[in-house]
């Protein structure tokens, strides 16, 4: 697989990207290291059960999709007082030491083939730096991709007792003319200092011919909280991994996911937490709806390490199927090595409740309207977790668009 | 192991096949499973050619398939060198396992029998010593009673001869083909012994069919095959294994169980297995369930070094149902990777899976399950419930269910919880005068009750007793 992409991808390409952006030598080195790593790197693991592989990432035609030197995006960044929300080039000028220390510290660029590709080729990105004790709200990064491929990197660093709420949204200008698709890749690292609080919301609404890969990983310090909200609505295929390492004592994480697939969309969404310290808490909530021939694959992992005394860990995944042609695959996993743990997971798959429908239609609501109301209601537990109003509105609107 | 190997060197079975194990080197030279091994087995059993062909085909499949190595969190099989194991199979070909004398049994096994409070005569039967007579009496009595109803219950080897057509049609064809996995292929090549159960249309066998004595007395060994055919409207409860540890000289147990549940038939398969702690227990068990048929799997997995076992039901006919109740107990150095698989391939099918596990002293339990609902299997429902109890911080308990849902008109629920034994519960019981161990014992008994209440009383009692012994750390 790597052969296809490697043909057009050389160290010169990477140097050209780096030079055009006046990057320091160390960043170029890291890009080149990531490029080298492509040789041996594997695609992300996908779930396999007897006779089948749940997602086919090899269908990504990198040769066609990836055009490293022609990446164009328009990104709007909304910041708040007392914090830094900077594009990567500006961040390199103003906070080079911080970038040098934190870039790739939480998320190893050599995790897999797609992360390495992203680390070698990224052209857009944002640093969000929240100094000690500062409380920031409504930070927004709205990106529109305007090229066949776009590689992005987001780095969030919060100092002690800081707090920030972030919404990152990705969209594009519509389907490509030749219908051959786009590829958007986004790596997100969150380093949450002691007692800090990060809510990172992500909304993906790319065109129906696009492919998306995203890996988001947080490192929670002592008593820190990292909450993720992940909304996937667009693309023909999305692979999304959201992960938190609870490395600090008393740290917490919530991962809230929502998706709504229609036509022949394929979502491979994954939520994982590692409890590595004492008194940590995690809550994983994912709700998805599938229509037409759409398909979802879900893996949730709660990994409780040997030293994670007094752990609480919960996971719920619910999928609603609106069509007989759709498919929902789920595997919520518990890996427990410390017995001082309260852990549970549950998963359900089902259709719109017949009795609810009957009740509503008997109250003179049309069957279609009743169904739509029930679907909207299904997303309420997810919507309730979203701190940013604008984000909540966006999700509600996307759900409604799907239903119309 | 050395005493076990000594035993192997002296069985006359081995002499018959002219094994030369006088030195380590000669022993090594015999490693590997070849076509000659298959011919030797087949000759010895005087098998029809078709069975010999199936064995040879399975051997080819076994040789072609790689070891499973890429399952997330799978038990470590790296120390299990198949080439080391294969020579151990030979003595087992002859239905003559066990040792010649009670006193030759490993102390661990003898202690267990003593602690279980099993009478001397029964101990002998269980350990395969001089059980031939007693066992045959039991067997014959049962046989007569069933024969009147047309029921067949016999050794699988015997069934190949006496019920050739039935066996030819059902043996490792549709249910567990050797191509299913590497160990099913191994099993297909070298299987020996086991049970054949045939229940004719509309016959209800109202007492459990037990392969309890027989299994040991005839030394059915480590590659036994169980084939159960329940015709339309029939009903049978088959119980296999014994709740006492089996004497095992072998490193690998790779059994095969195939159950054909006819229309509207009902089969319950119960097993309490407690393998010796050097055993790799890698089995394939599957039921094919026709319209309105019902399959129940009740199993207790104890013992073994590593177990990989996921009894499975294929719900082929409309309205077919499955019920799994499993319990796993892993102590020191044990990895019990077990669960359930259900394929809903028809409308209105239903399954429930209830899985309990206990891990202690560094043991690992894992629930690995697969529920597949095919497109068109409308109005199907499945409910999976897994509960894991952990005793200490050295132990590990994992849950890895997989759900593949291709149909929208379904009701799918999975739930799992993991927790430690409740400090408050223990405290409460202690204030009522129980000591710490008794309190824990009582909590565990309550925890596994859903399993024990499904078993006939003698099995339930022994399962409880086994769990007690495991908890006292006085077993093995």
UniProtKB/TrEMBL annotation, chain A:
Residues 146-378 form the SUF system FeS cluster assembly SufBD core domain. SUPFAM superfamilies: Stabilizer of iron transporter SufD. This is Fe-S cluster assembly protein SufD. Belongs to the iron-sulfur cluster assembly SufBD family. Pfam families: SUFBD_core. InterPro entries: Fe-S_cluster_assembly_SufBD (IPR055346), SUF_FeS_clus_asmbl_SufBD_core (IPR000825), SUF_FeS_clus_asmbl_SufBD_sf (IPR037284), SUF_FeS_clus_asmbl_SufD (IPR011542). NCBIfam families: sufD (TIGR01981).
Automatic annotation (TrEMBL), chain B:
It comes from the Archaea. Residues 1-23 are annotated as: Disordered. InterPro entries: Fe-S_cluster_assembly_SufBD, SUF_FeS_clus_asmbl_SufB, SUF_FeS_clus_asmbl_SufBD_core, SUF_FeS_clus_asmbl_SufBD_sf, SufBD_N. Residues 213-447 form the SUF system FeS cluster assembly SufBD core domain. Pfam families: SUFBD_core (PF01458), SufBD_N (PF19295). This is Fe-S cluster assembly protein SufB. Residues 147-210 form the SUF system FeS cluster assembly SufBD N-terminal domain. Belongs to the iron-sulfur cluster assembly SufBD family.
